[in-house]
């Protein structure tokens, strides 16, 4: 039986962090043998915020290196740059003809962007969901590993797929489902006591996969905590729960249990906890960081991976696009 097709992308907004690792990368790595996987760097999507020409390739290379460092293997899955697959842009054009202003304006991420940046409400931002639908439908993917924040976009992908199928009486597009593997639901909080790790909570609250050990130690030691529990078995406030969530991600079960006990009998010293957390985080991140540095230094190697990915992605995209053009009524 044919394997399910998986497709997912990450926007290149600077270096990847631990949240990306536990939320996306680790799942990608686990899926690469079980499914027919297409993982790409969404470097068309990044244009909505007008990056400089010099930063596009650089940021894409950074993501690619992180993908490889985390264990994605270009022989076992397809890893490519979105901009190396212009077929995506053509499918985006076709889908846009049946994407309506009202439904696009109602998308939560669009409304957020309009609120945050009222002076940059461009059409690319509005049609972000159709481009994302094109990414997925170009490979006729059935499973899309994404977080909760992408559910609505995926819902729209299904709408566009169904609309195309209905309009042309075809069964070309399957309706893709979101998948977050159970293990993938590990939420990585920011170090400032609230919210998710990532850009919006600031660099000081985020551990990047490229952070040097001294940087990690500094950030962890400054993480928000409180004055400590006053009664046994007290419920943990958010900032403390967050420290434990980080500990659960990178430390051994024994370590977690140890600090849990100290918390519950009110003898915990957060300085000790943070020192342990910093050690374990360094032990976790440092091998990844070193591999990323090596991979980035080998620009020839990265280029070979990109070329290989482009070839494989193109084969799959061409099969879909030939069908789409034929169905729509273009000469073939
Ligand atoms: N919108 C996704 C994000 O911000 C990135 C993305 C673009 C994507 N195209 C995709 C994810 C296709 C999955 C499938 O995280």
Write the CATH architecture name of the largest domain.
Answer: 3-Layer(aba) Sandwich
* Structure class: mainly alpha
CATH superfamily of the largest domain: HUPs
N-to-C terminal Cα separation, in Å? 30 Å
| Spatial order of strands in the largest sheet | 1-2-3
Instruction: Give me the count of strands.
Output: 5
**CATH hierarchy class name of the largest domain:** Alpha Beta
User: Which assembly state applies to the chains in this document?
Assistant: single chain
Order of helices and strands: EHEHEHHHHHEHEHHHHH
The parts where pLDDT drops under 50 for at least 5 residues are: none
Bound molecules: tryptophan
Determine the strand fraction and express it as a percent band: 5-15%
Could you tell me the radius of gyration in angstroms? 22 Å
Average pLDDT across residues? Answer: 94
CATH topology of the largest domain: Rossmann fold
- Main beta sheet: strand number and arrangement? 3 strands, parallel
Q: Which keywords apply here?
A:
13 helices; 54% helix; globular; three-stranded parallel beta sheet; 332 residues; two-stranded parallel sheet; binds tryptophan; Tyrosyl-Transfer RNA Synthetase; Rossmann fold; mainly alpha; single chain; 2 domains
Question: Can you walk me through this structure?
Answer:
The chain is mainly alpha-helical and 332 residues long. The protein folds into two domains: 5-188 and 299-328, 3-Layer(aba) Sandwich (Rossmann fold), CATH 3.40.50; 210-293, Tyrosyl-Transfer RNA Synthetase. 54% of the residues lie in helices and 6% in strands. Strands 1-2-3 form a three-stranded parallel beta sheet. Strands 4-5 form a two-stranded parallel sheet. The longest helix has 30 residues, at 299-328. The protein is globular and about 75 Å long. The structure holds tryptophan (TRP). The site of tryptophan (TRP) has 13 residues, from strand 1 and helix 7.
């Amino acid at each position: 039986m044919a394997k399910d097709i998986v497709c997912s992308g990450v926007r290149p907004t600077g270096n990847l962090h631990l949240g990306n690792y536990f939320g996306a990368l680790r799942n990608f790595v686990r899926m690469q043998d079980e499914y027919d996987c297409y993982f790409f760097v969404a470097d068309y999507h990044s244009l909505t915020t007008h990056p400089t020409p010099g930063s596009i390739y650089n940021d894409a290379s950074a993501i690619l290196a992180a993908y490889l460092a985390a264990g994605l293997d270009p022989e076992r899955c397809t890893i490519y740059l979105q901009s190396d697959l212009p077929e995506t842009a053509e499918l985006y054009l076709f889908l846009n003809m049946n994407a309506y202003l009202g439904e696009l304006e109602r998308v939560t991420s669009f409304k957020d962007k309009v609120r945050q940046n009222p002076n940059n409400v461009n059409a690319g931002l509005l049609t972000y969901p159709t481009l994302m639908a094109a990414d997925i439908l170009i490979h006729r993917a059935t499973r899309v590993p994404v977080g909760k924040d992408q559910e609505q976009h995926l819902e729209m992908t299904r709408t566009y797929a169904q609309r195309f199928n209905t309009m042309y009486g075809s069964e070309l597009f399957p309706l893709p489902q979101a998948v977050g593997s159970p293990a993938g639901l590990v939420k990585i909080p920011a170090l400032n006591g609230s919210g998710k790790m990532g850009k919006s909570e600031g660099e000081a609250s985020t551990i990047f996969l490229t952070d040097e050990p001294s940087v990690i130690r500094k950030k962890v030691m400054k993480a928000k905590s409180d004055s400590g529990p006053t009664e046994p078995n007290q419920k943990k406030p958010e900032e403390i729960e967050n420290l434990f969530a980080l500990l659960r991600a990178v430390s051994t079960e024994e370590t977690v249990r140890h600090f849990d006990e100290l918390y519950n009998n009110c003898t915990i010293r957060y300085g000790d906890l943070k020192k342990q957390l910093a050690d374990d985080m360094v032990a976790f991140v440092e091998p990844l960081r070193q591999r990323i540095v090596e991979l980035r230094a080998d620009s020839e190697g990265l280029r070979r991976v990109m070329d290989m990915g482009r070839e494989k992605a193109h084969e799959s995209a061409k099969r879909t696009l030939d069908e789409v053009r034929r169905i729509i009524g273009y000469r073939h």
